[in-house]
Sequence to fold (243 residues):
Amino acid sequence: MIKLDSLKISYQDRVILEDISLSITGHLNILGANGSGKSTLAKAICGLIQYDGAISIDGKNIKELPLKQRAKLLTYIPTKLEVYDEFISVEEFVLLGRFAYKDSFFDYSSNDKKIAKNTLEFLNISHLASHTLSSLSSGEAQLISLASALVAQSKIIILDEPTANLDPHNAKVIAKHIKGLKEYHQIILITHDLELASFINSPTLFLKNEAASYYEKYDEFYNEAKLEELYGATFDGLAVRYD
Fold:
């Protein structure tokens, strides 16, 4: 369980989120307008940015957890594949997801390499193993990011806009993988895509005006009246009307 207690996050003189208290016991979709604090909240949960208040996972304050122990608990997948060496191979990059299990100054174990290999096969991207990261398409890069997260075998996976800039086919591939992973991991999805959020079908946390509103049931959030109230736009089903 992830517990947020009186969470406040500011950037310079601007308050992004304030007085957020919530217990996240299962899967969660996080939605909201641009700048509402979705990615900021995810990074705070991962201990990547400063915040006031408290965040704990299974009763343990994340600020007090060693980095390797934290990595075994949760993994954050950013919107875009972030690398320091674009010429590293896919296989090498995915293996980095096993770093929390690696003994210092030693190579990755045969078990680590087996997990990486099996994960590439599971995602049907074994043919990319020897490719460099710089050679990947957007869809391939997103699958590689997902593979790196899976080999970490974290309890919680946080995905930040996983279908952004993807064509419909690749978005569908990613969406199906995410939904399937709910059986094995606690999935926190950040997205602007209402169709994707609806398909994943988890309780919703909507961020707006520094605050958060929680919707446990599907119909509480996915109805035109509520969407129009929250987004300030006219909807036709889950699609925004432009006329």
Observations:
- The chain has a mean pLDDT of 92.
